[in-house]
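Continuing the batch. This is chain 6 of the set; chains 1 through 5 are on the previous pages. Same settings as before, nothing changed between runs. Recording input and output for traceability.
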Amino acid sequence: MAFHWFNPPVYVRTDRPGIHFGVSHVEGAAEQLLKWTNRGLKWQHAVETCMAAIEGQVPSQDARRAFEAAAKEESMFLPPA
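Output for chain 6:
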């Protein structure tokens, strides 16, 4: 499987205290989204945009922006270290 890379990475919280994760491709963003328990409107948009990016319908950077917005909405976003 070919990854759909984006740059810069989006850093998010993990379920392990003190550990953050840098997401740098659409597939990783989609995987992280599925782990989150809060699922607001931006989460839904991010899932749809990630799926569209995987299918080649939108650029990977669109998925990155949607993922970052969802991470902020769900309080999962961490600014780059």
